[in-house]
Structure to design on (391 residues):
């Protein structure tokens, strides 16, 4: 039995990755899975409930305060709130200890959660920390979180070389591993992707949570420059929602679309579960992140469906996109270089096709879910043996 502590109920990158891992463990091993999740609702929780109906008692879900760590945790009120969360986590686990007697180890998904450390300590089992972030600012938080990972983990697994380099503070020896996220090709509904597509235009897409660091405002600068250079027969679909605490940014983003007269070139689409339909509707995926992506799952998803990628040359994207083969890697925040790369692909359908094919091959070589999760089992085997069930 594995106990997983996760800090979100959504269905974005890290959510998909941990849910897919749980699904693999339940379908391919005889292990059970327990989830500790925050209270509330979300698409990720809905998906887990569907899995629960399939796997029964082998998948158990508890919703409680998972001791999330954010920037506010480094002030006096934040510290008090975190200590309160830790106390309630201790009380909950101690009160229900018999329910977790079969847990062999605790797996914490992302460094923004401290609850896994508490649970592993109470149950006296190994703790595995899965690192999916690169946090450089504030500096105190960056150092603190990496020290926590180092001091309170039996094993540390990063989802890219970039996150692995970030988390290794003061060395770390053999306890650190890198396992790229495994990705299943997103499902495509027969014919339904046509609702996102305009066949008279080259379709570009940006998929993910709307935020400053993901490059959404920067994207509008790129689009404006493309239009000013005479590119007219294209459209960008921006798929995703803003976090509840970032709604002002979303309003500013919409205002900028209006002020730059880009309404006919940019379409906003709220987050959709059937993201495969979006990828099949676009010709080029854009990932213009202003800060290093810890991994870059959307790039892998697009490549799995044969879509070329133009992305920022930083972080985990450097592991994913092969420059000049499956797309282009461009210096972050450089409008000119993004415009040139996008323009080359917009002008050449055969190049888009060949790069998409190369991306699909690269996905099969390096990023399938089975490759990833078999590597997880190999690493987990250092602390617990699994009975792998082959098809």
């Amino acid at each position: 039995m594995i106990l997983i502590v996760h800090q979100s109920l959504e269905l974005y990158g890290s959510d998909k990755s941990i849910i897919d891992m749980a699904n693999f463990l339940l379908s391919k091993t005889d292990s059970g899975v327990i989830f500790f999740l925050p209270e509330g609702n979300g698409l990720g929780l809905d998906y887990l409930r569907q899995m629960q109906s399939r796997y029964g008692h082998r998948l158990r879900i508890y919703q409680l305060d998972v001791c999330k760590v954010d920037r506010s945790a480094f002030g006096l009120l934040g510290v008090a709130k975190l200590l309160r969360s830790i106390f309630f986590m201790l009380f909950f686990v101690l009160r229900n200890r018999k329910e977790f007697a079969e847990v062999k180890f605790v797996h914490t998904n992302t460094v923004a959660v401290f609850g896994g450390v508490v649970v592993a300590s109470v149950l006296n089992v190994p703790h595995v920390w899965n690192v999916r972030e690169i946090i450089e600012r504030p500096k105190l938080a960056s150092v603190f979180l990496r020290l926590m990972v180092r001091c309170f983990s039996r094993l540390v697994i990063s989802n890219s070389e970039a996150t692995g380099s970030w988390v290794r503070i003061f060395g770390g020896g053999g306890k650190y591993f890198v396992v790229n996220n495994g990705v299943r090709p997103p499902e495509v509904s027969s014919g339904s992707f046509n609702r996102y597509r305009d066949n008279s235009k080259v379709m570009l897409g940006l998929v993910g949570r709307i935020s400053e660091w993901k490059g959404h405002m920067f994207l509008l600068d790129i689009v404006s420059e493309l239009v000013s250079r005479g590119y007219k027969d294209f459209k960008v679909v921006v798929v995703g929602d803003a976090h509840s605490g970032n709604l002002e940014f979303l309003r500013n983003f919409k205002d900028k679309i209006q002020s730059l007269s880009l309404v006919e070139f940019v379409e906003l689409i709220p987050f959709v579960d059937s993201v495969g339909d979006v990828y099949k509707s676009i010709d080029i995926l854009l990932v213009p992140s202003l800060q290093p992506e810890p991994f870059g799952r959307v790039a892998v998803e697009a490549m799995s469906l044969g879509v070329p990628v133009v992305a920022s040359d930083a972080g985990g994207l450097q592991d994913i996109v092969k420059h000049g083969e499956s797309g282009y890697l461009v210096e972050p925040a450089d409008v000119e270089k993004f415009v040139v790369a996008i323009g080359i692909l917009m002008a050449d359908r055969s190049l888009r096709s060949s790069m998409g094919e190369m991306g699909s091959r690269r996905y099969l070589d390096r990023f399938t879910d089975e490759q990833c999760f078999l590597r997880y089992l190999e690493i987990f085997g250092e602390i617990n043996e699994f009975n792998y069930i082959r098809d």
